Amino acid sequence: MNKGNIETNVLNVNLSLKQERIGSRIVISLLMRTFLFFIFGAIIVGLFTMSGYDNPLKEAEKWWPFQAILTNITTFFILRQLLKKEGIQYRSIFNFKKGRAWKDIKETIWLLLIGIALGAIPLYIFSYLLLGSFIPPDTMFQPIPSWALVIAVIIFPLSNGLVETPTYIGYALPRIYKVSKKLWIAIIIAGIALALQHIALPLVFDIPYMAWRFLSFLPLAIGLGFIFTKTNRLLPIAAAHFLMDLQLIIQLWLMTVK
């Protein structure tokens, strides 16, 4: 695998490796979103429990967009702080360059097509293998009030695009590579962490379901990391991720609003 394309990115973390706690910062970037999903999911469950719902865990499933939004906002501040410790501005990890708009748009389109394939096909395959049906569970498509859908459509895909792949691929992957000196290790570890977070969104304490969520997103997560090492461009990946999440939340709207 050619390592040249990622060199300009990992050079940004040379100084950080001379500082203490680079390992702890890598661990934080890999695990924080999974913990945050559990924390905010538990808070939502707690609110429905205090409101007297008979099955607050089931009711909380519907509100996964807000579980994600709260996690995304928190992630942004933590990630910005991690970058600040290394003297790096948050926006710099996107590697935005003037004069590349058309090229970025084309890369986003083909990344979107790849993302749909790597993201959709495993959903059905692992649903059959783990849950016994080619039709995936409809947990993500339960109705919530229209006002909540409006907020979700506006904030969820944008906030997710701004922090999810930047955290795992833009921040963690280059630093794992710099420490391990093995690009494949960095891609796999970052990909596993990116896929793992999905076991807690929404909170469904069922082992086959959680395994389905993890394995379904693993090909896409590893694929995005591999693509990043070849293109050294996070912006098109984040943009394609935004469009995929926008499609998901619009699908929720169309399936639940009568």
Shape: globular
Strand count: 0
Instruction: Give the radius of gyration.
Output: 18 Å
Number of helices: 9
Name the average pLDDT.
90
Q: What summary fits the major beta sheet?
A: none
Distance between the termini: 50 Å
Commentary on this structure:
The protein is mainly alpha-helical and 258 residues long. The protein has one domain (4-256). The protein contains 9 helices and no strands. It has helices spanning 4-10, 22-50, 56-61, 64-84, 101-131, 146-180, 183-196, 207-231, 234-256. Helix 6 (146-180) packs antiparallel against helix 7 and helix 7 (183-196) packs antiparallel against helix 8 (207-231). The protein starts with a helix and ends with a helix. The relative contact order is 0.18. The model has no long low-confidence stretch (mean pLDDT 90).
Key structural traits:
258 residues, mainly alpha, 0% strand
Short description:
This protein is an all-alpha fold and 258 residues long.
Map the helices and strands.
Elements: H1 4-10, H2 22-50, H3 56-61, H4 64-84, H5 101-131, H6 146-180, H7 183-196, H8 207-231, H9 234-256
